[in-house]
Amino acid sequence: MAKRQLFGIGNPLLDIIAVLNDEKFIDKHGLKKNAATVLEGGEAEKKYEKLLDELVSNFGVKYIVGGAVNNALRTFQWVLGENNEGVATSMGCIGDDIYGKRLQQEIIKNGVNPCYMIDKETPTGTCIILVSNNNLNHTSCAIIGAAQRFRKRHLEQNFDLVKEARLFYTSAFFLGSDSESVFCIAKHALESEKKIFCLNLAAEYIMSKAKFCKPLLELIPYCDFVFGNEFEAAAFAKMKNWKVNEMSEVVVKMANEIEAKKKERWIIITQRHLPILVAKNGSNKVQAFPVKEIKNEQIKDTNGAGDAFVGGFLGQFIQNKTLAICVKCGIFAATESIQQQGMTLPPKCLFSE
Description:
single chain, UDP-N-acetylmuramoyl-L-alanine:D-glutamate ligase, EC 2.7.1.20, ATP binding, 5-stranded mixed sheet, nucleotide-binding, adenosine kinase activity, purine salvage, 23% strand, globular, alpha/beta
């Protein structure tokens, strides 16, 4: 397959995972157990740096490429296999430090072509994930760092990568970093007619913050595919003041009641163990795709499952497979990912149509 066909832009992070025998380290640093925290501000970030240094110095840690878009891109490459490296390109911003270098090394190992802006003043975004209590507790703490410092000039300097791609993917998270660049790509996809632009709703809170809501609503008309989960879709419906009782109604409204600049817009909503719901503009029909049942004891980590679904879906879509096969592969990838520690996948993709 040709290189650089999928172009993703997002907030690159490096996940740093440690499995702890007890929770003394968590208590020492005053972290909220089994919760996710994002630190902002000078003092908080200094505290985080101290915590990170102590963790890396005293515990065995595992490094995994993180960030919602990167999770999807490396799953996409996993689906395509090791003989198709570099079909996906990842753009974002990292720091000029050891963690930025490690992130680039790891994403290349995952088959993704990195094209990162380097910010010399801000540390690479990292996320500490502490696994404790026999794998029952997952305590995380992150700084977004340089990921928020992306500037459009880097996109403009590397715009040949955009011209070369035929499929684009971003997350609503990135609208808080550089929405101008996102719209530049979306408009390019629209003008090119045959190019596909995809968006992930990212998180419930996106729909309640002004800095995200306005660009999100302006971006959806450019989208060919919008991905999300049932909580994000419900938050979107609340933001729009839609009076709905069923998730199927939300999916239909998302497909039909927002302007579409493209001929087709597909809304694809995951619901954990419940069927995937899919709707297309111009129709009130909702397709439901059942997911594979999996025992609770097989589930190790659900973080990034939605990203894995998107990567699996796009891995088949780029090969011109049917909607049903794309969804089936998305379900397969998500199911595989939740049986691993951290957002990782088995060595080979054994998906079969």
